[in-house]
Amino acid sequence: MIHPVRVHTLDVGAQSIQLDGGQVVRALTRVEATPYGLHYANDVPDHPHLTHVEAHLIPALDLVVSHFTDRPGSPHPSRFYLDMATITVKAEVWTIRDLYLDVVIRLDGQPFLHDADEYAAAVVEGHLTPDELSRAVLSAQRVVNGLFAHNNDLEAWLASLGIHLEWWRLSPAATMQR
């Protein structure tokens, strides 16, 4: 049995993000509107492997692009983590529905599809609407094809779409591989 869809609510006015339907609330350390969506950051002091999350919400691509600052010795370092997600905006409140499928870009730049098992279980258990089923697969396909066409360079692919990501805080491990 798989967990229900994870819903995160980011309230720009309140400078907070509610994770998993409000079970966890964290203060945002920074948030800015961008031409393509929203860029935010928050600390995660209670996480066993991470200290900081910085993310770009890109609603037109059904995509959340995250960079995690890992604690020393983290078992799963990555350069970027891409969640396939529906993103809706009402005034200053952004709602993110995680569609289970993810693409992880490793430190060596190689992408891999992650959590396909969770996606399959969510489909079988009826956690996703027919529209979400389609959007998850199409978003993942767009990401993989875009990366492939740009030698696995996330920023080059997004730049080809007119999306230029800026990062406030990248860990040394992520920048070493550039």
Task: Explain what the structure shows.
The structure is a single chain. The protein contains four helices and ten strands. By secondary structure, the chain is an alpha+beta fold. Strands 1, 2, 3, 4, 5, 6, 7, 8, 9 and 10 form a ten-stranded antiparallel beta sheet that branches. Strand 1 (7-11) and strand 2 form a beta hairpin. It has helices at residues 116-124, 130-149, 154-160, 172-176, and strands at 7-11, 16-19, 24-27, 30-34, 37-43, 50-58, 63-70, 80-90, 93-105, 111-114. It is globular, with a radius of gyration of 16 Å.
Key features?
globular; single chain; 178 residues; ten-stranded antiparallel beta sheet; alpha+beta
CATH architecture: Beta Barrel
Rg, Å, rounded:
16 Å
**Alpha-beta classification:** alpha+beta
Which superfamily, in CATH terms, is the homologous superfamily?
FomD-like
Proportion of helical residues: 10-25%
Mean pLDDT: 91
First and last CA, distance: 39 Å
Taking pLDDT < 50 over at least 5 consecutive residues as the criterion, the unreliable ranges are 171-178
Concise structural overview:
With 178 residues, this protein is α+β, with helices and mostly antiparallel strands. It has helices at residues 116-124, 130-149, 154-160, 172-176; strands at 7-11, 16-19, 24-27, 30-34, 37-43, 50-58, 63-70, 80-90, 93-105, 111-114. A hairpin with a 4-residue loop joins strand 2 (16-19) and strand 3 (24-27).
SSE topology sketch:
Blueprint: E1 7-11, E2 16-19, E3 24-27, E4 30-34, E5 37-43, E6 50-58, E7 63-70, E8 80-90, E9 93-105, E10 111-114, H1 116-124, H2 130-149, H3 154-160, H4 172-176
Antiparallel strand pairs: 1-2, 1-9, 2-3, 4-5, 5-6, 6-7, 7-8, 8-9, 9-10
